[in-house]
Amino acid sequence: MSAIQSWLDRLKNKQIPQSSWAEHRRNEALELLAHAGTDATWIELSNHYNGFVREVAVRELCSHPSPEALVALMDRLNDWVPQIRDLATAGLEHYLSPSHVEALLFAVEPLIALAARRRADHGKTLQAARAVLQSSVIRETVHANFLTRKGKAARYLFELLLESDPAPEALLRSALAHREVTVRLIAVPACQALPVAQARLLLLEALSQPSAKFRVCVLRALLPLIDDQRSVLCEALLDASPSIRNLARWAAPSSNVDAPTVLADRLKQDLPTRKRDWLGVLGLAADLDIELEPQWQKEALSSPFSTVRHAAISVVSDSQLSELLGALDDSSDKVFTAAIARLNKQPWALVKAGLDAKLDRDWHELSEMRRSSILKLQPLWQQVAYLLARLDAEPAAQAFWLRRLNTWCERQYLMVDPVTPKAERAELAERLRALAARSLIDSNNVARVV
Description:
Elements: H1 2-13, H2 21-33, H3 39-45, H4 51-63, H5 67-76, H6 82-92, H7 101-106, H8 108-114, H9 123-133, H10 139-148, H11 151-163, H12 169-176, H13 181-191, H14 196-206, H15 212-222, H16 230-237, H17 242-251, H18 259-267, H19 275-288, H20 294-301, H21 306-313, H22 321-326, H23 333-343, H24 348-362, H25 368-376, H26 380-393, H27 398-411, H28 422-437, H29 443-447
Helix pairs in contact: 2-4, 3-4, 4-6, 5-6, 10-11, 12-13, 12-14, 13-15, 14-15, 15-17, 16-17, 18-19, 19-21, 21-23, 26-27
Keywords: Lyase
Protein name: PBS lyase
Organism: Pseudomonas viciae
């Protein structure tokens, strides 16, 4: 602290014209710095608006190196005061050696950010830091740190490691399995610079990694490196990801691979047990518009995986109406909604009995969303017919069903129902008027529909 104290003494004794702006700033700095004592305080003061304060803070940080101090110095490399920038640059020199690798790795993100700052030319500093991180003596440390990073820091470390690696196969293998998907994506074209045998092996291993976007990229790079693409394409056609299947279907004809034959061969085998295998079979069947056997449809709809049950809805044939109606009991709202969409395309006469039975049995247990969705499958006048029937069947719950009828009338805007015969509509309208005449439901709401 003696050097800092000496500098402060010179600042205090410096002759400044009375009542000047500089004198005010100097006095403010002296008061603040008199109470500064910890590293955290100096780091905080290095961002102070008063240039005198920042200068003292930078001097102190230069005297007490630490990873946190390095980050603060990097920030001051772009200071608007040239003298402070020069001080920070001089202080940074201490860290530009392999012995300070931990501090440099701690400051990787500020180092990346520095490249976008333009108040001064930071090219020399950036190149020097990059050269240190590429030193062979600390390569293992940098590589281990790279495996834990994400975002821009992970990409930066991968690129500098790759740039200085004469035998990058091990690095690329770890990059292709990195938790940061953007690292995996930029590792794929880097593999293509390797000898074909090495690249093929790495890309084949990478096909098992998560992220469909990444695996599509891998498959695109891999196919030209394979002499016989048939086995890879057959597997890709049954992938759980639609994007992988689409790429495989596009590439299949050039390798004499027939997608329907691949599906037929798979359907001759045992039923899948894994979620991704089910999704592959169901997905390819939907892609090719091929109807699965009833046993496969039933097994898919009873899968413990909601994603499989949801996918199964799209391949269940119209003849399996009971299976579609049964899907309305599914615990997954996505499966329920998919079943509603399929049932909405069925003729009303075919689904009426099943829907009425479902509502009769579960009305009070259903959520409002499910109850409303099932009711809306019915033509408009059939909806009110159902509510009137429930009113007749449950006199003890008259108040409840009257409220439902009143709400239904209130929500109608344009009554379009090509299914219900005109005579039946007239009879239902007359019943609503009678209820309104007895003040059991709002006459204004009834007037909206009759």
